[in-house]
Amino acid sequence: MALKACKVCNYLTEERKCPMCGSEDLSLKWKGVVIISDKEKSKIAEAMNIGKNGKYAISVE
Ligand SMILES: [Zn+2]
């Protein structure tokens, strides 16, 4: 199954809705992956306003 990116929080999932924020607004058109494994230390997580560890798309159309 294809990986989809949540348009709200950028979280990548194979589910029909985002397990992170509950949104069903998912897109197959996304670019780049960022994996946040330690959000406390991650500048990327801070910059992208990510609150939980996981796999995120860098940009979502
Ligand atoms: Zn989401």
Automatic annotation (TrEMBL):
Gene Ontology terms: cellular component: DNA-directed RNA polymerase complex
A GO term, aspect molecular function: zinc ion binding
Biological processes per GO annotation: DNA recombination; DNA repair; regulation of DNA-templated transcription
Keyword flag Transcription regulation: yes
InterPro entries according to UniProt: RPABC4/Spt4, Spt4/RpoE2_Znf, Spt4_arch, Spt4_dom_sf
Keyword list, A-Z: DNA-directed RNA polymerase, Metal-binding, Transcription, Transcription regulation, Zinc
Residue ranges constituting the Spt4/RpoE2 zinc finger domain according to the UniProt record: 3-61
One Pfam family named in its UniProt record: Spt4
Binding-site residues, Zn(2+): 6, 9, 18, 21
Family: Belongs to the archaeal Spt4 family.
Cited function: Stimulates transcription elongation.
Subunit structure: Heterodimer composed of Spt4 and Spt5.
Record protein name field: Transcription elongation factor Spt4
Annotated source species: Candidatus Parvarchaeum acidiphilum ARMAN-4
